[in-house]
Amino acid sequence: MKKNQIFIAIAFLFLSAILWSAVTFSGEFVINIRLPLQISSTTADLSVDEDIPSEVRMKIKSSGWNLLRTKLDRNKKVIVDLSQYQNNSVIQLSKFNPEQFDLLPNIEILDVKPETILLTLKRSYEKKIKVIPKLKLTFKNGYTSVSQIFVSPSEIIIKGSSKNIAKIDSIFTNEIILYNLSEDVEITTSLQDTMINTLIYEKIPIKVSFKVEQIADKEFESIPVGLINPPEGKHVVVIPNIIDVKLRGGIKILTELTNDSIKAFVDLNNINLDSTNIVKPSVVIPIGTELVETTPATVNLIIRK
Description:
Layout: H1 2-25, E1 28-39, E2 46-48, E3 55-63, H2 64-72, E4 78-80, E5 89-92, E6 108-113, E7 116-119, E8 121-123, E9 125-132, E10 135-139, E11 143-145, E12 150-152, E13 155-160, H3 162-165, E14 170-172, E15 176-181, E16 185-189, E17 206-210, E18 212-228, E19 235-239, E20 242-250, H4 251-256, E21 263-267, E22 278-279, E23 282-284, E24 289-295, E25 299-304
Parallel strand pairs: 1-4, 9-14, 10-15, 18-21
Antiparallel strand pairs: 1-3, 2-8, 3-6, 5-7, 9-13, 11-18, 12-17, 16-17, 18-20, 19-25, 20-24, 21-23, 22-25
């Protein structure tokens, strides 16, 4: 009997909530919303020259149900068709009706920001820019990235007025967040909508990949120390002329390396031979490795005329 009473009580509360929502949401409310603003292209030879906002901010009034439907629709956007306007004209967003804002017809628009957009078109130019992956990575303890970040395509072609394409030399991908990595990564992402209303570029998928390996240390003994850019009229000898180099990197990479994979040298162009006798050699190491130490850390230069 008690179970039936509990069930009846729950059903009553549920029905009451439905009735309360129906009555409440049938009333009128005022809310603020933001909608993406998308400018349609005009011709192949013209592009927007002035900065145009990426969104429209509005204060709207309607029934609770209409406003709820508007808030839940993530695909809504304001599309301005430039073919309906002449160059150097003013687009008055404040005079748009609800349909032009992709809103239900019984929604009242109380305020629009910006109220106007200045339309200035200029000749279009093309430019090739780099694609830069935006990464936020963490690795499993004892693992790290052991290769450069590969991006495909590494460049894209943008199109816009000369003023706007001069502002940009690269474009980021959307942020890629990966945690606790212990294996190679190959992932597909998309480009950020940078200056979406002033630049035209193909929204193509971008592939990002890199290698991940377990970390280890390895010592390479007797690496020759060379001299580059020797001065005229002087004979320079480096003592000792070999060093030991310890590298840190992925286990697979380290096992494939030999002494020939590492270069150590002293650039005599960067040294005052009249006052310097002890220098730290430069060491060039393979991508995906990190220099831990050299032994000895410095070498002596003997200068003879």
